[in-house]
From TrEMBL:
<dbReference type="InterPro" id="IPR014026">
    <property type="entry name" value="UDP-Glc/GDP-Man_DH_dimer"/>
</dbReference>
<feature type="binding site">
    <location>
        <position position="262"/>
    </location>
    <ligand>
        <name>substrate</name>
    </ligand>
</feature>
<feature type="binding site">
    <location>
        <position position="166"/>
    </location>
    <ligand>
        <name>NAD(+)</name>
    </ligand>
</feature>
<dbReference type="InterPro" id="IPR028356">
    <property type="entry name" value="UDPglc_DH_euk"/>
</dbReference>
<feature type="binding site">
    <location>
        <position position="40"/>
    </location>
    <ligand>
        <name>NAD(+)</name>
    </ligand>
</feature>
<feature type="binding site">
    <location>
        <position position="35"/>
    </location>
    <ligand>
        <name>NAD(+)</name>
    </ligand>
</feature>
<dbReference type="Pfam" id="PF03721">
    <property type="entry name" value="UDPG_MGDP_dh_N"/>
</dbReference>
<feature type="domain" description="UDP-glucose/GDP-mannose dehydrogenase C-terminal">
    <location>
        <begin position="334"/>
        <end position="449"/>
    </location>
</feature>
<feature type="binding site">
    <location>
        <position position="348"/>
    </location>
    <ligand>
        <name>NAD(+)</name>
    </ligand>
</feature>
<dbReference type="GO" id="GO:0051287">
    <property type="term" value="F:NAD binding"/>
</dbReference>
<dbReference type="GO" id="GO:0003979">
    <property type="term" value="F:UDP-glucose 6-dehydrogenase activity"/>
</dbReference>
<dbReference type="InterPro" id="IPR008927">
    <property type="entry name" value="6-PGluconate_DH-like_C_sf"/>
</dbReference>
<dbReference type="InterPro" id="IPR036220">
    <property type="entry name" value="UDP-Glc/GDP-Man_DH_C_sf"/>
</dbReference>
<feature type="binding site">
    <location>
        <begin position="91"/>
        <end position="95"/>
    </location>
    <ligand>
        <name>NAD(+)</name>
    </ligand>
</feature>
<feature type="binding site">
    <location>
        <begin position="222"/>
        <end position="226"/>
    </location>
    <ligand>
        <name>substrate</name>
    </ligand>
</feature>
<comment type="similarity">
    <text>Belongs to the UDP-glucose/GDP-mannose dehydrogenase family.</text>
</comment>
<keyword id="KW-0520">NAD</keyword>
Length: 482
């Protein structure tokens, strides 16, 4: 079966880039990405392709190539469903904020709405592809809704989780480590549907990288992958705290263990804590699923990854207060970076939000600079926490357009995102315009500590002893072991 018409419900961080690449690589397939968010769709359709709603290196070029040719963005959801043979569901599946499973389970409200809409509209057989990250066995619930509320047409459900990371989405989509497709291999219709999706990817991905499994393995593989990745970050962050007490250097440890081919070098970068819309949500979901089967040891094991991450964010903020002589009240602190990682404008669950909130509770005056995040987003993130009213957030935290404005007259600077441009700043100039002692907290270990100490900064990094240049021009450690 050759697919001619694809619809994707959800034009977000996954639906947008994924469909743009599918359209780019399959010019003969019409790909329509639909969303209920009118502004988002308008931004995807903006004449100036640089104004698309997601910042992702290389994305605007792909959109420019395919948009209007075979890639379309629309709010006409019913029409797109009706026309497509294959429908991707790529809507948000956040952690539930109410009712049973509050704070843990995935909220499948939007998934269910999609299923009901597809069932209502579809007049011909359709292949439904789960692109969103979902709890294991969601396909069963989807099938039940589709079959019980539909117009008697047949639905095949495939699981096709997305493994792209933000900031490298286009490269990840162009050169994926693997494509995972879960389908029903026991029926002819299931096999045909799976092959139809394999063919879409085979336009640019070699067949040995396209893995087909049963639906449940595919759904659970996605949660497992994120749990393993996040666990690596929490593991190295746990060691970073031990390093700070022993004089060991976490960067050296990452290098040393990463050379063991069984461990591998990636994802061993100690940081202020992982953020992003996926890791925490997906692990909490995994914990909830394990608990719901009574597997308490399994649940506790994975929950520790989150506990460690919360600890890492908190202790970073606590360290700022302690180092600034136990008070930051009325002190200006510059935060460089708000996004949860570099090369994205996404701020969901960014460590910066929690560090800022902690410091605001300590009555600091905060100034934020991020090259890609807009002020409204920063305030929306803080307001969402509900720690203080919106007016107070706007009084106590300012967002500026230039890094040097953020740092001028600051008592301390905290680097919270690893944007490359931070490394290239004129740090001497920044030092000169700060209050002294000039404290710098590098939550990403990206800056040259020796150079900064030479300029006069008192530098704190993650998993490394704090350093400062003594009067005799000797690099001294500020930390006492133990
Ligand atoms: N962000 C990532 O890097 C990433 C990577 C892999 C997987 N995922 C998973 O992909 C899914 C989507 O994530 P995202 O980051 O793209 O979310 P997102 O919030 O950026 O986008 C989801 C979009 O779906 C739209 N939507 C919701 N319900 C709708 C409906 N009934 N009809 C039409 N549109 C609807 C929303 O308006 C929104 O624009 C989630 O399950 C997530 O866990 C995300
Ligand atoms: O060594 C590391 C690696 C990452 N991080 C942090 O971990 C978070 C997540 O980073 P990353 O995984 O690169 O970005 P995401 O876009 O969240 O991607 C993850 O989550 C996606 C959504 O499910 C998956 O598709 C991806 O495979 C998975 O990497 C960020 O805050 C990073 O700064 C570290 O602190 N140290």
């Amino acid at each position: 079966m050759k697919i001619k018409n694809i619809c994707c419900i959800g034009a977000g961080y996954v639906g947008g880039p994924t469909m743009a690449v599918i359209a780019q690589k399959n010019p003969e397939i019409k790909v329509t990405v639909v969303d209920i968010n009118k502004e988002r769709i308008a931004a995807w359709n903006d004449e100036n392709v640089e104004n698309i709603p997601i910042y992702e290196p290389g994305l605007s070029a792909v959109v420019a190539e395919a948009r209007g040719r075979n890639l379309f963005f629309s709010t006409e959801v019913d029409k797109a469903i009706d026309e497509a043979e294959m429908i991707f569901i790529s809507v948000n599946t956040p952690t539930k904020t109410y009712g049973i499973g509050k704070g843990m389970a995935a909220d499948l409200k939007w998934i269910e709405l999609c299923a009901r809409q597809i069932a209502r509209v579809a007049k011909e057989d359709k292949i439904i592809v789960e692109k969103s990250t979902l709890p294991v066995r969601t396909a069963e619930a989807l099938k039940s809704i589709l079959d019980n509320t539909g117009n008697g047409v047949n639905f095949q459900i495939l699981s096709n989780p997305e493994f792209l990371a933000e900031g490298t989405a286009i490269d990840d989509l162009h050169n994926p480590d693997r494509i995972l497709i879960g389908g029903d291999s026991s029926s002819k219709a299931g096999k045909i549907a799976t092959q139809a999706l394999v063919d879409v990817y085979a336009s640019w991905v070699s067949e040995e990288k396209i893995l087909t499994t049963n639906v449940w393995s595919s759904e659970l593989s996605k949660l497992t992958a994120n749990a393993f990745l996040a666990q690596r970050v929490s593991s190295i962050n746990a060691m970073s705290e031990l390093c700070e007490h022993t004089g060991a250097d976490v960067n050296e440890i990452s290098r040393a263990i990463g050379m063991d081919s069984r461990i591998g070098p990636k994802f061993l970068k100690a940081s202020v804590g992982f953020g992003g819309s996926c890791f925490q949500k997906d692990i909490l979901n995994l914990v909830y699923i394990a608990k719901s089967f009574g597997l308490n040891e399994v649940a506790d094991y994975w929950e520790q990854v989150i506990i460690m991450n919360d600890h890492q964010k908190r202790r970073f903020a606590e360290n700022i207060v302690k180092t600034l002589f136990n008070t930051v009240s009325g002190k200006k602190i510059a935060l460089l970076g708000w996004a949860f990682k570099k090369d994205t404008n996404d701020t969901r669950e960014s460590a910066a939000i929690y560090v800022a909130d902690y410091l605001l509770n300590e009555r600091a005056e905060i100034v934020v600079y991020d090259p890609k995040v807009k002020a409204e987003q920063i305030y929306a993130d803080l307001d969402y926490l509900g720690s203080r009213n919106p007016e107070e957030n706007r009084n106590l935290l300012k967002v500026v357009e230039k890094p040097y404005t953020a740092c001028k007259d600051a008592h301390a600077i905290a680097v919270l995102t690893e944007w490359d441009e931070f490394k290239a700043y004129d740090w001497e100039n920044i030092y000169n315009c700060m209050l002294k002692p000039a404290f710098l907290f590098d939550g990403r270990n990206i800056l040259d500590r020796k150079k900064l100490a030479n300029l006069g900064f008192a530098t704190n990094s993650i998993g490394l002893p704090a350093v400062q240049m003594s009067k005799e021009k000797k690099l001294t450690s500020l930390a006492t072991a133990g």
